[in-house]
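Why run this: before we spend reagent on co-expression, it is cheaper to look at a predicted model of the complex and decide which construct boundaries make sense. The entries below are exactly what would go into the expression plan.
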Amino acid sequence: MNVLDFNYMLELVPILLRYLPLTLQMATVGMAVALLLSCLLAVIRVLRVPVLNRITMLFISFFRGTPLLVQLFLFYYGLPQLFSSLTAIDGVTATIMGLTMHFSAYMAESIRAAIVSVDRSQTEAGLSIGMTNAQLMRRIILPQATRIAVPTLMNYFIDMIKASSLAFTLGVTELMGATQKEAAGSFLYFEAFLVVAVIYWIVVELLAWLQRYLENRLNRAYSR
Amino acid sequence: MKTLLLSIIAAASLAISPLTLAQDKEPLRVGMSGQYFPFTFVEKDKLQGFEVDVMNAIGQELGREVVYRTAAFSGLFGMLESGRIDTVANQITITDERQQKYLFTQPYVYDGAQVVVKEGNDSIQGVEDLKGKTVAVNLGSNYEDLLRELPYADEIDIRTYDSNLEQDTALGRVDAFVMDRISASQIIKDKPLPLQLAGPTISSISNAYPFRDTEEGRALRDEVNQAIETLRDNGTLKAISESWFGTDITSP
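The model came back. C-alpha cells follow.
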C-alpha cells in the first residue's frame, strides 16, 4: 500500500471548505421550509382534514416511496420537457425543492407520531378547564411534541446535509461534487474522500452538540 | 510549452481589446464533467484541460464569453436537453443514435476506443478477450453501446459507472474498462494508478460538439463550426493538442 499523500490532503482542505457553505445553505434552507411544510402536513393528518388528508397521504406516499435521486431527475430534467418554462429553475433551487419535499414527507410522519404520543389524558385535562382546541395545541400538546420530535428531526437534518451531495448530478458543484472532481483529477481517491469524510463528520458532530443543548433546554421542565 | 501557449492566447486576447469582445452577444454555455483527465479536469479548484483550451479559443473566435457548467457525466445530456447549456465539451463521440437527436459540428478530435486493464494482467489483449469478463464503462457513454453491439455482448458483464471506473479497475474489482486511447494513455503516463493498455484500439471515434435540433441550436452550431474551421486553418487546434498530448489528435 502506498503512503498517504498528506501534503495533498492539507492542500485539499481549504479548497473543499469553499464548497461547504453551499452544502449548508441548501440543507438549512431545505430544512427550514421542510419544517413548516411537514408541520402543516402532520396537523392535516392528525386532524384528518377532509380532502387535504387524502392529498397529504398521496404526497407522503410518493415522496417516501421513490428515491430522492429519481425525484431530482424527474423534476430537473423531466418536467422541463413538458413545461419549457421550468428550465429557468437552476440546480441549487431544484435541489432545495427536492430535499424539502422528500424530507417533508418523512418529517411529517415523525411530527405526527410526536403529536399523537402526547397522552390523551392531557387533552382531556385541557378540555375540562375550558381550553379551546388552538390553546390546547399551542400550550399543551406542541411543547411536549416538540421535545419528542427534536432528536428525529435533527436526524433528518443531518441526513439532508449528506443527501445534498446528489446535487452534483444536477450540475451543482457542492462539497461532494468538488471532491469528486479533485479526485478524478489527481486520482488520489483515498486522500480526497478521507478529507471530505472528515469535513462532513465535523459538521455533523457540531450539530450533535446543538441537539444536546436543545434537548437539555426542552427537558428542563420535566427534570426535577 | 503549455504555459507558453496559454500566454500567447492571453496576449492575443488582450490585443483584441476586451471592449470589442464582450459586445452584446450571449455567452456560450458549455457543459462538461470536469472528471475526464486530461480533457476536462479540476486541480486545486481550477477547471482545465484540452476541452477548456479549445472551447476558450472558440469563444475568442466568436467574440463570446464561455461559461462552463460542470455536472456528473450522466447529467450532461439532460442539461443540454432541458436548455440549460448550449453544448457539451466532454469528448462527445458522434454516434448514429445521437445524430438523430442532435446537430453535431465537424469533429475536432480523432481517437480510438481502448481496452485498459490492471497492470500485469496480460490475459486480455483485445476486445475478443473480454468474453466472460467484467468490463467497466461510463454510464451513457458511447463505449457502453460499443460493447453492447459486440456479437458476444451477452457474455460480457458490463458495469456502468458515473465516475471512478479507473480506480475500480486498478483495484481489480473489474477486469477492464473501455475509454478513449488518448485519455487512457495520459492517465497511465501521469497518474499513480497501476494500469496498462490492452491491445490495439477497437474502433475509431470522432468527437464533436452536439447542439439541440432547434433553429437557435442550428445557428449556434454553424457559428461554432466556422470557428473550428478557422482554428484548424490557423494552427490553433494543432497547437493546443500538442501542448496537451505532444501529438496532433485534431486531424484524422
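Chain B touches chain A through 32 residues (CB under 8 Å). The radius of gyration of chain B is 19 Å. Bring this page to Monday's planning discussion.
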